[in-house]
Amino acid sequence: MAQWFIYLLTCSDKSYYCGITTDVQRRLAQHNAGKASKYTRARLPASLTASTLVGDKSEALRAELFVKRLPREKKIAAVHNKSWS
Fold first, then answer.
1. What distance in Å separates the CA atoms of residue 78 and residue 50, rounded to the nearest whole number?
2. Which of 1, 5, 74, 81 has its Cβ near the most Cβ atoms within 10 Å?
């Protein structure tokens, strides 16, 4: 079974992008190559701000939804502290 991560990127306009993946470095490379999401494609380059192992895909999806609903100033702490658990 694959292990899933939640990650937070900082885009060139200082906005955050939250996503999930099984390979954070591969996904970051995809974002910076313009092959991941439309959001980051328009805001390159993106840098990795935070990532945390969350377990299975179901938990990763729940975590992503939780973090995306938070105000900007709480997103980094939520990823580091696993606040959705």
1. 10
2. 5
Q: Which residue has the tokens 């092959």?
A: 35
User: How far apart are alpha carbons 35 and 41 in whole angstroms?
Assistant: 7
Q: Which domains does the chain have, with CATH numbers?
A: 4-81 (3.40.1440.10)
In this structure, how many other beta carbons lie within 10 angstroms of the beta carbon of residue 18?
21
* Token pair belonging to 17: 């992008």
What are the CA-CA distances from residue 67 to residues 17, 34, 37 (Å)?
A: 10, 23, 17
- 8-40 pLDDT, tens digit each: 999 999 999 999 999 999 999 999 999 999 999
d(CA 64, CA 73): 16
Beta pairing partners, 19: 7
What pLDDT does 1 receive?
78
